[in-house]
Amino acid sequence: MLSLIAFLIMIGVLITIHEFGHFIFARMFGVRVEVFSIGFGPPILRWKGKETIYQIAAVPLGGYVKMYGEDSMTEPIQGESEKEAYTDPRSFAAKPRWQKILIAFAGPLFNIILAVILVAAAYMVGVFEPKYMKEPVVVGYIQKGSIAERAGIKPFDRIVAVDGKPVKNWKQFTVEITMKAGMTVNVEIERGRKKELLTLNIPPDITKKSIGISPLVPPKLGKIMPGSPAEKAGLKEGDTVVAINGKPVRSWFEIVEVLSKIKESKSVNLLIKRDGKVFTVNVVPEYNKELKKYVIGISPAYDTEIKRYGFLEAFEKSVQKNWEMSVLLYNFLKDIVTGQMSLQEVKNNLGGPISIAKYSGGALESGLGNYLFFTGFISLQLGYLNLLPIPVLDGGLILILLIEMIIRRPLPEKAKEYLAYLGFALIGTLMIFAIFNDILRVLQ
């Protein structure tokens, strides 16, 4: 129920802001707006303004602003002929194309602006940040075949400087590495009592390809999966794993390494520390068909803290974060178009209304800041996706208007009709695919 409420609030705000963008620009250019609708289908709430009907419709997955003279399907009103509807100065059809483009662009623009505002509000309210960002740069895990492994970095190494500049914590290290994207840097590490200088080749697009290191995560248990072997054995959140089958472990990644080698449902002996007491627990792993390996149902504990920012700093961070998310979305779409992303990868990354509802509920449950941040993230995606040059989307209308400006005449109505059918087919197929993908996730 919480997920449904969170989803309806979020989608209602995003749709309202999007359609308000179209509405306010239409009114600014003197276009008569007949209907302002939040949702599609039959209206469940409706009221009449001075000249516009405002309504909330039954299907909350979109909305629309119906403008007088918007298309060839416009019906004559108040005794006017169809020709008059297209020559009336308050008609959308009578406006110059540059004004029509701005009216179409206003909806996505308002969503992008809203994203910046919501993420800034999230930073002011407070967002969860991992505590390790303020801790020394102690490496907990090295990805196999990664840039870091090739450079010679090993688990439990402590990185103390990048190109001679000291780095006291993970936050400083992350900033330095990001600033050196596409460059070769000298990294000074401490290994035991010795210091070494290693050469690290930073990838040009570090947001897409990491250097392959992770922070040191303590061997402390976080969430215990309900009904899992770990829960049945009596393990609890907050327990610390001291050893597995007699072998000491110092980090979460060592736990993962040991458990990943299990090939049968054979009892595993864990040495556990809880409230100052040390005892042993025997857990029998179960085979997980989806992951295709034996698991016991545990996850790591990540220590976090709520970080709040002032007004100016919050907006500065919001612009930076929205830019990063914009780059990620661009790379995602580019990889789909160029075929660099497989169908399975698309399925793993594509979510529909059910996934959005699930994550919005989780975000609201974890705090207002996280919910505002997630809503801003969805608003940004909604803005950009509506700018895609697909007929029936705002980007499709903008593309048609640009073509008409180049050829200096309107496209034939038949061509616009066929383009609309194509757009509906593409969007419909994408929605069906996303919803079907959501259902499969739920069933799994």
UniProtKB/TrEMBL annotation:
Its main location: membrane. It is found in: Membrane. Its cofactor is Zn(2+). GO terms for molecular function: metallopeptidase activity. Residues 186-251 form the PDZ domain. The gene is rseP. This is Zinc metalloprotease. Its EC number is 3.4.24.-. InterPro entries: PDZ (IPR001478), PDZ_6 (IPR041489), PDZ_sf (IPR036034), Pept_M50_Zn (IPR004387), Peptidase_M50 (IPR008915). It is an enzyme of class 3 (hydrolase). It comes from the Bacteria. Keywords: Hydrolase, Membrane, Metal-binding, Metalloprotease, Protease, Transmembrane, Transmembrane helix, Zinc. The chain crosses the membrane at residues 6-25, 101-125, 384-406, 418-436. The keyword Nucleus does not apply. Belongs to the peptidase M50B family. It is a multi-pass membrane protein.
